[in-house]
Amino acid sequence: MNLELRSPFESDYPAKLEATVRDGPVRCISFNKRGTMLAGGCSDGYCIVWDFQSMSIIRKMRCHVNSVTSVSWSRNGRCILSSGEDHKCVYWDITKGTQKWIRFDGPVLMAEMHPRNNSMFVASIYQDSPVIVEIGDTIRRFPLPTNAGSSPDANNSSSEETTNSTLYIHKTVVCRYDKRGNRILTGTNKGYLNVIDPNTRRILDNPKLSHLSIRNISVSRNGKVVAVNISDKTIRLYGLDDERIDINPELQFAETVNKDNWNQCCFSQNGDYLIGGSGKLAAHEIFIWDRRTTRLVQVLQGPNETCIDLAQHPIQPIIISVDVEGTMYTWTTRHKEDWVCWDPAFKEIDDNIVYEEREDEFDFASEEEAEYSQSNQVKQDEDEDEDEEIDVVTVDKPARSDSSDMEDDELIYLVDSEVESFISTKTLETQQPESSARLNHTANSANNVVIPSSTNNNSSMGRNSKVKGKNKARIGNEYEDTNGWKKKSYHN
Questions:
Q1: Domains of the chain, start order
Q2: What is the annotated signal peptide range for this record (predicted)?
Q3: What is the predicted pLDDT for the residue at 162?
């Protein structure tokens, strides 16, 4: 959608269900930085990439054996990091089709790419400490502490004293980078929110928010506010500084009627609204609050399937949600078609009017007059086109994007893979008989399409066969035409 044609009076949050997509058992989703592509991880181990404008699949690859737990985009939009229950993370280059596997000692709960470094990510491991991973010629791992006062490498100790200490009481269940990647936010099963310096791997601040486990952490687009989803059925907002979490004042958001849990939370594209996906059984509900007034402004209700994940578009007021069946739902605003943006002479009417035709509207014009008027119109259009210079190279930056987010090698759009079509073509070529080689060469040079042979020497059509019905037996003579096709003429 062209951002300049959008009405400035439209609401900044969705209000209706626009479309439904069913392309697999999707469990988690994530937008790239520009919102042009959407990545999803499935319960069967596949990772799918959609073109968001058409919602067509442009990449699909088997990355894991078990279910995928999270997907994350790199800064340049060329690679996807996926984590799974099969004890590994997969770094997938969608332009080349290559994969790098990083194995761990337990299932990976979630993993997120560094917002500035395309070869670094942080991962949360089940029953283990979180770890920073650098991807290069060799994989380097740096464990992170789980509670204040512990050393970064204390988790690698195998002594019984370390095993029985309080270090292993706190288990990290979620981890997240801030906007610049200068800090790492980790949540434990005891309700502690740790702020870690990735360079020194030391905990700068660790306030206790609750006695229950932290489920999700979301950082606003400006990086100054953090939303924490806790198992006590409440979403809390805190201010985020360079080294500490400002827990005063604390804003709480909860469902006051049913008191259900929240499966996911995030901010709107401009950070003015907080979005929460309800974990209510047999109900697909998304709550939207005004972050400043804590007022509930919208409740989106879908089919009777629980919402397990959702993602906010980084630029437009669009939300993508996923239910337990793997179906994705697109929620958009109620926008009105304004045809004046396309044609200033367009006039919208509320009721039918009687049209009064002009006196010379249907007068017959000779061919000479028609050609003369047409040529004058073409010359006038050419003169107007010569005066106007159209720039088709420069990419307009969205109004809400940061200048520091621009990259030279950033991948914004992606087309279908040429490698997959090449492999499938070679496979068809090997399955064809030699008699159709000349035809295949002609077809490949024309349209790059391989047409399989219509007959086979070992097939039933190439042998004399008995036919049930009126024609009990038919004898055929086999011959080859000028194009190299084998044909057979039959006679009774």
A1: 12-158+165-332 (2.130.10.10), 433-455+466-492 (no CATH)
A2: none
A3: 42
